[in-house]
Amino acid sequence: MGRYVSDFRGERHRFDDLRAVLVKASPRRSGDELAGLAAESDAQRIAARAVLADLPLTRFLEEPLVPYERDEVTRLIQDTQDLAAFAAVRHLTVGGLRDWLLSDAASAEALAALAPGLTPEMAAAASKLMRNQDLIAVARRCRVVTAFRSTVGLPGRLATRLQPNHPTDDLRGIAAATLDGLLLGAGDAVIGVNPATDSLPNCLALLEMLDGLRARHAIPTQTCVLTHVTNAIRLVERGAPVDLVFQSIAGTEAANAGFGVSLSVLREAREAALALKRGTVGDNVMYFETGQGAALSAEAHHGIDQQTVEARSYAVARAFRPLLVNTVVGFIGPEYLYDGKQIIRAGLEDHFCAKLLGVPMGVDVCYTNHAEADQDDMDTLMTLLAVAGCNFIITVPGADDVMLNYQSTSFHDALYLRSTLGLRAAPEFEAWLEAMGMMDDAGRIRPLAEAPTRRLLAGGGVADAA
């Protein structure tokens, strides 16, 4: 007999445990179907949501989805929960939390105060009771501001990661793509390259080239070579110009072990980067990437639905005060997010849950070429996320990553979002664009043919442009 029961249209639905309630309440997702966990019918899905809505939030403290003694992520979640912050909503059910989040009482200040009191499971549960517009409305009021050389997450701002990947890590090709992005106003969140090979000499060459370009033009941003965290530690030891330490993370100890990381390794890496003291306006030195399906693909999901286990990765992220976090929402493939509808929903869920938990969330609005999705779906998602106050998006030349072989968003897409929605770049980066003569009086990026813009290609810095 199931522990949780709901009657819907004359049929009784039973759910064995809290994990079953959460997964059956989830919107349809190919990953949950692949795992054999998904709701068997829409009726069962609605019945599970009815159960979920009436569950006290305290149930998530009494019934951990992964046992405390078996999982360091569970221990992190429980040991770091701010019970004083949680007291404000302790009396609520999941449905009551949803209603409060949508009320006028949930101001930006109230949401920021609540964030350390919520667990990822609570955030994921609330999201399962929300429409897309609900996810947007709440996330828009959640502000998480971080800084290194530029400040990311301020109201009215949309930052970008400039991603100049190259299939052979050719330094000239990466430099050309970087200049292309800078000329179109991209790169205020980070200039971050995924190396085609993780060898230390290759990563060092990439770091030195990107840092030299940044320093030569006095660009107020940060650079990052997205190599494994253990490589980053070795690079710091060799005196490399490491701004941000990158790592992909997941929501269980076993899934993180599949990435070759643990909380202790992440802690060591953060301490190494902080010791360099390279930031000028802040000291947020970590950059994390997540994605629905990562734990399932590693067979490390513990029977938890992919959206909830994804939310657990945000507890890992927030423990290390990162500058940037982004979900690669459609990158893992249609086995986990089948089509444009599922990708759009997942992107809004990830952004909502992360921001609600106090994580500085961005999104790689993307899909693989074998998914039932296209660029129109990405246009929809990036517009919705910009309305929702997303901290940053990924931008690549032509929206086509020629190294990772997937479709993302372009430098021009970011210009569309800023122009259409009245958004601006990070303040330090915006001031640099103005000083370089790359921005006109209306805040628009000047055409490439205009003389002030050509100074960047000619090698001039801010002083030369003045």
UniProtKB/TrEMBL annotation:
Give the enzyme class. Answer: lyase
The pathway to which it is assigned is: Amine and polyamine degradation; ethanolamine degradation
Catalysed transformations (reactions): ethanolamine = acetaldehyde + NH4(+)
Can you supply one Gene Ontology CC term for this chain's record? ethanolamine ammonia-lyase complex
Residues annotated to bind substrate: 161-163, 194, 289, 364
Sorted keywords for this record are: Bacterial microcompartment, Cobalamin, Cobalt, Lyase
Instruction: State which residue ranges cross the membrane.
Output: none
UniProt-listed Gene3D superfamilies:
Aldolase class I (3.20.20.70), ethanolamine ammonia-lyase heavy chain domain like (2.30.170.30), lyase (1.10.220.70)
Manner of cofactor binding, per the entry note: Binds between the large and small subunits.
Name any Gene Ontology BP term.
amino acid metabolic process
Q: Where does adenosylcob(III)alamin bind?
A: 195, 247, 297, 403
- Which domain of life does the UniProt lineage start with? Bacteria
Q: Recorded GO terms, molecular function?
A: cobalamin binding; ethanolamine ammonia-lyase activity
Q: How does it assemble?
A: The basic unit is a heterodimer which dimerizes to form tetramers. The heterotetramers trimerize; 6 large subunits form a core ring with 6 small subunits projecting outwards.
What NCBIfam families does the entry give? PRK15067.1
Q: State the family named in the UniProt similarity comment for this chain.
A: Belongs to the EutB family.
**Protein name per its UniProtKB record:** Ethanolamine ammonia-lyase large subunit
What is the organism of origin for this protein?
Teichococcus coralli
The gene for this chain is eutB
